[in-house]
Amino acid sequence: MGFVGREKEMRLIDRCCESGRPEFVAIYGRRRVGKTLLVRKYFVDGFSFYATGIAEKNMKVQLKVFNLSLIEYGSSDRSIPADWFEAFTRLKTLLQEDGVRRDRASGRRVVFLDELPWFDTPRSSFKAALDWFWNGWASNCKDLMLVVCGSATSWMLDNLVDDHGGFYNRVTRQIHLMPFTLAETEQLFLSNRVALPRQQVIEAYMVFGGIPHYLNLVDRRSSLAQNVDQLCFQPTGELQHECDRLFRSLFKHADIYEAIISELSERLIGKTRVELASAEGIGGGKRLTKALRELEQCGFIRKYQNYRANKNGHFYQLVDPFTLFSWRLMRRGTTDSWTEYRGTPSYFAWVGHAFELVCLLHVRQLKHALGIAGVQTKESAWRSRENTPGAQVDLLIDRRDGVIDLCEMKYSGSEFVIDADYARKLNRKLETFVREEHPKKALHLVMVTSNGVAHNAHYDVLTDDIGPDALFAE
């Protein structure tokens, strides 16, 4: 299994190790993004204590596994603690022993609590005990580093990072571990000796997203299409039920979260809160507010403003490629063979949507390709008020230098050819935007493609085009 990237996060942990003061490091990010691997890779298991929570288990089980870790790291008391205060008292005793393990490089006592939210079962007082352990003792130990991880990002933010109680301003460092970019995905494949041209790296990203665990499952002895079949569509495929496991492990009463994802999978540009509230199985009120906030915190959706700001100007948009793939193709039973499905009209509908999503996740690279990396911008989308013929722009880059880039994103197996009909469609889109929005900035029509644009008689309708290599920029 390859390990690439994460240089920025490694440097941050370096600074924590060298700070000369107690450090409380909170690492969060969606499931399978590599939080545990990052910590293990950095410290090479040089922990003074390590324990991990167990999903969907009660307080008794959590205390049992915590106690097993205490015994493993040298505790002489083998009885299961009666509560979390006793458990952390024993941890404190363990850390004060002369022979306690230390990180070889820094000499620090490192405590690593993985999947922290799972320890916090109902009425367990886990958070109060952790508060007591840190504020009452550990925060006075200059050589102590407490590292906590959690996939339930909303719990990590609400109870630690943004807490206004005992943990207010106690977290000294926070790391939001993001999915890989296309460049990092390519590096991971190379480290695993998976030889794919960039066109197929893009397709792999459209299926698996930038989630290292999923990407590490790709077998170099099989084609990409065979890998997708084996992992996602075979009854024993490792990712066959991944989305179900993912949502059930992150959210209590997952039905509303899944209903929101199902609605958002239908429209790339996203939907407003009003549109979502009217959908079956969702409804409005505080329940919807909570679900949208938690889905956004966990990285499945994003909230952004429509170019035409108004009271309904915010959209909620699905931005996780694997979740889109799962809902559009796996959960609906659209196909049971990826190899046979590729090339069908339904496949091309999905691939167009998925490529646009990849582009939206690489806006920084697009700005670099346009030569505006240092220009302040605001990204949004736009929908025409008109229904006939109607128009929309899925990525609009509003620049402080007096330009608006209207980005068209097209996936094709070869060079994209702009014919006369498509050129007229692009011109109508520009005209509709001008008529409805009366922009005071110059308009640039930019096309982003998976295989470049043919320079034919209609190419000049574009201001610029961005090919696939630009998406792989660091």
Protein architecture, described:
With 474 residues, the chain is an alpha/beta fold. It has helices at residues 7-17, 35-43, 59-72, 84-95, 116-119, 126-136, 153-161, 182-191, 198-208, 212-216, 224-233, 242-250, 255-264, 273-277, 285-297, 321-330, 338-341, 345-360, 363-369, 420-437, 468-471; strands at 23-28, 49-52, 109-114, 144-150, 173-176, 301-305, 314-318, 377-383, 392-399, 403-410, 442-449, 464-466. It folds into 3 domains: 7-176, 3-Layer(aba) Sandwich (Rossmann fold); 179-361, Orthogonal Bundle (Arc Repressor Mutant, subunit A), CATH 1.10.10; 366-471, 3-Layer(aba) Sandwich (Trna Endonuclease, Chain: A, domain 1). 43% of the residues lie in helices and 15% in strands. The strands form 3 sheets. Strands 2-3-4-1-5 form a 5-stranded parallel sheet, with helices on both faces. A hairpin with an 8-residue loop joins strand 6 (301-305) and strand 7. Helix 4 (84-95) packs parallel to helix 6 (126-136) and helix 9 packs across helix 18 (345-360). The mean pLDDT is 91.
